[in-house]
Amino acid sequence: MPCTLRGTFRAGPAAALLGLALGCLTLGPALGPGFVLVQDMVFVPDPVFTRFTFGLAGSAPRVVPSDAVVTALSWVLPAEVVQKVILLGVFVLGCSGAALLVPSRRLTPRLVAGTFYVWNPYVAERLLMGQWALLLGYAALPWVVRATGSARRSAVAMTPAAAGGFAAMAITALTALPLAVLREGRTPWTARVARVAPVVAVLAGFSLPWLVPTLLRPGVLTGDATGVEAFAARADGPFGAVGSLLSLGGIWNAQAVPVGYDTV
After folding, report:
1. Is 162 among the domain residues?
2. What domain count does the chain have?
3. Rg (the chain; Cα; Å)
4. Per-residue pLDDT tens digits for 144-202
5. In angstroms, how far apart are the furthest CA atoms of the chain?
């Protein structure tokens, strides 16, 4: 056990530094002065709180509470610095969390796992789509897995996803709930309920910022059948849509595919 703990203490900071390096390498010029504006990623110099910030302007609360979090942080730091800290934080959080999930005392396999978790088509394509709020939830997933079984630790681990909003909380729920149900194998249903209930409570509580505006919205949210086809997974490489999905790619927007994917 002492060796395992010592390995964990060493792997955490090492993986965090590796994540920071990978983030700098990935973002490159985006870390320079000014803002990065791409697709869904819109940061402004002097954000202010409005009804839209809290999802009370009548539209779907897609930016709740992420816009409010950015606005609040921009009172402390310049908004352009906030953007860069968040983007780098995705790499640091994801790389260190994935590294600590690896059941090995050796540092190398942990760093390999951390690298793969943040250096892959999924992260690249979501960055090119500007989906930083979703990536906050993605980066925190390894920590959510580690925290399974403890309501307090789960709440801390889900905080980045809570800041990201609906999409981030959705992937968190899809990860946390099955783990809570299946943890420790075959157990009485009462024990499973006792494990799942705190997770559901945390998920529900962190979803209130966007769930309440959705319920208070004057009109109902309607779907469009054409959207299913428009946003369906597509092939972004030579192995078809299924191959793209298995390689963590397959995003619907061809403009969000890094150059060279279709020739690999």
Report:
1. yes
2. 1
3. 19
4. 999 987 889 999 999 999 999 999 999 999 999 999 888 766 677 777 788 888 899 99
5. 58
Residue with tokens 């946390």: 176
How far apart (Å, rounded) are the C-alpha atoms in residues 48 and 44?
A: 10
- Rounded to an integer, what distance in angstroms lies between the CA atom of residue 13 and that of residue 15? 5
Q: What are phi and psi of 32, to 5 degrees?
A: -75, 180
Is residue 21 exposed (0-12), middle (13-18) or buried (19+ Cβ within 10 Å)?
Answer: middle
- C-alpha span between 25 and 4 (Å, rounded): 31
| pLDDT score for 256 | 81
Query: Which residues, other chains included, contact 256 with Cβ-Cβ below 8 Å and sequence gap of 6+?
Result: 39, 125, 126, 128, 129
Q: Judge whether 241 lies within some domain.
A: no
180 lies in a domain?
yes
User: Tens of pLDDT along 53-110?
Assistant: 998 887 888 899 999 999 999 999 999 999 999 999 999 999 999 999 999 889 999 9
Asked if residue 39 is part of any domain, the answer here is yes
Which structural domain, as residue segments, surrounds residue 127?
A: 2-220
